[in-house]
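Table 4 source record.
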Amino acid sequence: MLTGPEYQELLELRRLVQEQEQKIEHQSHQLRQQQIQIENLTQALLHARKKLFGPSTEVTQTEGQMSLFEQEELLHSLRQGQEEIVITEHKRKARQPGVRAEMIAALPVEVERCIVDPKEQCPVCKSPLIKVGEKSVRTEVIFQPAQLKVRQYIQEVYKCSQCGKEGSEHPADVFVGGKVPVSLLPHSLASASLVAGILYKKYDMGIPLARQERDWYRLGLCLYRSTMANWVIRCSEEYLLPIYERIHQELLGCGILHGDETRIQCNREPGKKASSESFMWVIRSGREEAVQAVFFHYARSRARKEAEKLYRGFQGYLVTDAYTGYDSLDGICRALCWSHVRRYYIDSIPLDSRGKEISGSKGAEGREWCDRLFQIEKKLKAFPSEKRLQKRQELSRPVLEGFWAWVEETSAKYTANESLKTALTYTTNQRKYLETFLEDGRIPISNNDCETSIRPFATGRKAWLFADSPAGARASGIVYTLVETAKLNHLDVFGYLCYLLESLPDLDHRNHPELLEAYLPWSETLPESCRLREHRINKKCMF
């Protein structure tokens, strides 16, 4: 039997043990949370390293990969229940003779004859030689660097031989001068071809004005970057702006549009620091629209009011990411991009120390569901929109139902993978807009076309880094619009810009805006100098 002091001591020991157990449990919980946090940070680092140094393709590597679905029976039933779509097979042909001749068919030919010296004799008997034929040895392409030349306009002046003479009905002398083309930029050396060359180099080839300055100097012309920037701004505002505005108007009349926005630094934006971010808003027409165009709009912010201003008057479907600035715009029905969903799940796939995916993850399952939708779309690509809509109801809707069931089941389970939680939350919140593509066969399931049109801007931005002024940023938006729209319509970018700068100074478009129709990138009346040659379009070129 324990005495009073002994009993109190035992109670105190029990209390201390309980406190220690609670402390150990709390520390164990903290340790587990820290381990989870370390693992999430490690995965974020591995994914960031993979994006920097790994392959940039988003194509799923399926060679030798086992199915990652726990619901394999569901997937199997979906595949069995779907009608097979017969697509004509495309086999890569071996290189045929004459391809090289086709590559150089549009180039002028210069024949270099390798002749025998008339004084040369037979190396055997020293007799005179007689020409008996010739043969083609090889063909090569010669590069001639660009050259500059000066063009001076001399106006001839004529005087009437009768006016001003004594006894003439017109006592004053009459002079007549030859017609002089309108100057592109009065009191400057700028010509249409020179400015078009500057625009082409910067906005299509991605060469900033600082590098161009050195290149023009090499060709013999001392042309400062500040002068070139001034020419770009003036020509954009005075000549290219009307075409730019018409492209915007035509886009608002389409039924399907893509939308996105990307960052740009503008150093002298009033009320903002030089290092702060402004935005370039981008619109692209759907692939099946009659008007094929891209529109770049500079704005100092990413605020919703910019979207309202930019899309005012548009009635149709807008394919975007999940940015809330596009929510509830008048007359617009939103459709979200499944490529963004897929990227969320890719980012949630755990990687090993070598940056390789660890098989069997829920993130890989989510990606495979998305891949199934893209595989269906690939098969439906050649179908007319009405037939594509019908097939989507038959093929894509069951896949979507299975995917939503998988999302609900996976969300109900505990996971320490923060990236997977983000992917599941994003998918659940955007379900309504992710299903919009089932309403119209013209709606694409991704915003990849718009991102493709933004890529030249993003690539060029790495070279020129910033716009110095809002006027320069707006000018960049104008020129990028014309360049990317010209490429969509298979135009020669330099030829088209040169044609506009040669023609628009003489055009009275302010009083007769209908005259601009002939200068739009999709106009059938554009001269051949603006168009790419047919054989170059048929090749799988970079554009």
